[in-house]
Amino acid sequence: MHQPGVTRRSFMAGALASGVLLASCASGGRGDKVSSSSRLRILSWTDYIDTDEQGAPGTVSRFAQSSRLDVDYSDEYPSNTEAFSDLFEPNLGRGRGVGWDLVVPTFWLASRLVARDWLEPLPLELVPNHVNLEPTFLTMPWDRGARYQMPWQAGLTGIAYNPALTKRDVRSLADLFDPAFRGKVGMVTEMRETVALTMALQGADPSRPTKDAAERALEKLEAAKRDGQIREFTGNEFRDRLQTGDFALCLAWSGDIVQLQRDRPDIRFVIPDEGGMQWFDTMVIPRHSDNAAGAAQWMNFVYDPANAARITAAVQYISPVIGVRDELRKLGGDAAQLADSPILFPDDATRQRLYTWGGLPSDVEDDLDARFTTLTAG
Amino acid sequence: MSAMTAAAPPVAAGRGVTRPTPTLYRAYSIAGGVALVLVAIAASALVGSLSDRTDRVRDRTGPVLVATQQLYSSLAEADAAAAAVQLSGANENREQRRFYEQALERSTQQIERVATLIGDDPAAHQTLQNIAANLTRYAGVVEAARAQNKAGISGANATLTSALDLMRSGIGADVEQLTAISEKHLADDYERPVARIVVAVVSLVAALIVLVALQRFMTKRARRLINAPIAIATVVVVVLAVWMIFAEMGQRRDLRSASNDGYASISSTARIQGVAYRAKADESLALLGSGAALGSFETFEQSVRTLASRDLTAADAQQVRDGATVAGQGLLFDAARLADSSRERYAAAEMLVRWQRYRDTNRTIQTAATRGDRTTAALIATTTGNQAFNGFNLAVESVVQDNTAQFEDSLSSADHRLRYLGASTLLIPLAALLLLLWGTQMRINEYR
Fold first, then answer.
1. Assembly ipTM
2. Which residues of A touch B388 (CB under 8 A)?
3. Do the Cβ atoms of A150 and A122 come closer than 8 Å?
4. Can you tell me the distance from the alpha carbon of A284 to that of A149, in angstroms, rounded to the nearest whole number?
């Protein structure tokens, strides 16, 4: 079901964003009552859901059938930065809808949208399956109780390595800066993961970041890039670099490594001793949505563990839905094997070592983003 | 209407009727005018009081009550998190430590907020000072226990227990007292405008008596059916009286609703959080204890019974969502019964489900502890147990947020009822006064 090379992390061309913007013009307003219509418009990342296959309708088709809604599902979500600058800010900032009833930004962007009051509170009376949300996602300081968003899929950022090249086990973030691996190290292009993990290496807590700590981490990364320690900052292209041997070790996303391990079981993925990053993309209902009720129905549908398990089997990221593991076993075959994956279902000891980026004021993050972009482009 | 009165000639002399003098009319109009001025003053004062009552409840008493309940649960959260951190050993649980620090920070902010809002009540300020001082001591003892725990000193658990005792006996009692003071302030605010209602009613009645008497006098002396301006003035004053009565009653009803539906629910859910946190801390203490105290979940079970007399099922949750009454004793059942909107019922159902998940996890902890496997029990408690408890706690917080929104909505509604009344208490008596003067002058003119 997976199409190699294209995942939720893929960076979409600007042309896609313009298509999104055109669609955004169709939004309508709503009052205090939960809006509803016969059409539901969902905007998500590429290849981030199970699709129709012969004899087996995908999640969108099954939902459309059960809800009798006309579902317009687009997988053309641009990068978070583009989504903010081209979709959310120009529309929601002017009191207009974005043309989608449900969008799936990454958590840090969702926190910005919450802070700006650009999201509808979830009509939880329409989402009884909210009770199936893993408790760890309820404790986000920017949305305690998950009243404005429901996570779609989560992932981990840790270290992937090729033991044939490293010639030893890798356990620490310090290994990324070990001169023995000069020119064979990769980092990811997500500032909130690469900088955060460097902060963790320096003893800071990425779940409670400070500007100073982030800047110290950036300085270390800049030096490592200058010295040739870091070969490249990549998106999920790290999979190719690991396969070709360009990278001996790199920061990597768990879902991509699960997929890679089907062909290259020798590639290993570890959560470093200092900790790994947990991130998640999350479903939100932008203000002025025409069909908040339909969006809530969708959330409820995909939070049914049986439906959530089908999505997990397809996308192979961490599901935020309680009960998915049992449902994967019921599905049998490859899906049942995923139920035993320590990457999809990290144990308690691993979970204790995970950080979620705590967020900084948006102007500070914008500055850090700009500096990080210069670093990754250089 | 003026034609009905202006066209009528004066009553002819010699028909045995005493001619009413303009002076007599003027005397009546002066009396009516004075009464209407009194109405304007008394009604404005009353509306001012009603408005003040709402403002006080909305801006001071209400937020103080909410902040006090939040303080109660923040302190309980700090307590539970401190115990959980200790249980995780030298390699302390980062998340629980963060919860502890955040809860302590929130507590300090809530104390400051209450101090700012509660006014110049010396007893309340003394209580707040006690809480603040004891909280500083508490934090110090927790840090000492933490340092001892990290250093592997055997007395660490005893040090932590003394901190928890301080929280429960000292700080807890003071917070209870603060709650009682805040609730008394709310009751006082309800009763505040009563004296002014009496003044306003008396002045309205007086104005009506003068207007009706003048109308009757004119009817009798001039043999007219009615003096239209004075009749309209009378009706206008009656309208003002009815409006004020309805506004006062409506406002009182909204405030009662805020108190019964909003605050009672906030208070109920804060109790749930407090008892649940206590249970969680007791769970940690049972695992931290030594000798007979190890694995003794008696106090934990007491708290559990306070929350729910029996296990909760998926069917119970569905019944709550459907608005049906669920049989059972305990704070969780009470909260489910208090939920009176669809959103609240769904939130209450989630709270029940998540509590049961935590309860089930605790049973596995107890089983491990009972067979003497403290390590496994502690591991479950600090991982799955903490997560399940956090899930429950956040579900309760959701209910609190909904209840707080309902409380604030009721207060806004109470305020909304007075929206146009303030200006009307001046304009309506003024209009009535002008009508009175007009009606009287028309009669006087007939004598010129």
1. 0.80
2. 135
3. yes
4. 5
